[in-house]
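dumping this here before i forget
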Amino acid sequence: MAHTIVTSTCEGIADCVEACPVACIHPGEGKNQKGTDWFWIDFSTCIDCGICFQVCPVEGAILQEERPDLQRTSS
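structure:
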């Protein structure tokens, strides 16, 4: 099961993007509710390694489960 980036919590720091071994994390369009850049995880590519979860400094921005209701892929 893939991980999920909570769009409204993500602050666009992008540590996860650099750490992802399969390049499944992509930038979203525009800004989120907090006014920051945001990213999303391609569930079909994610290998559930958990590196994104480990490197993200924003508490609650990445969940260890697939939650499409909390992650969007565009604005």
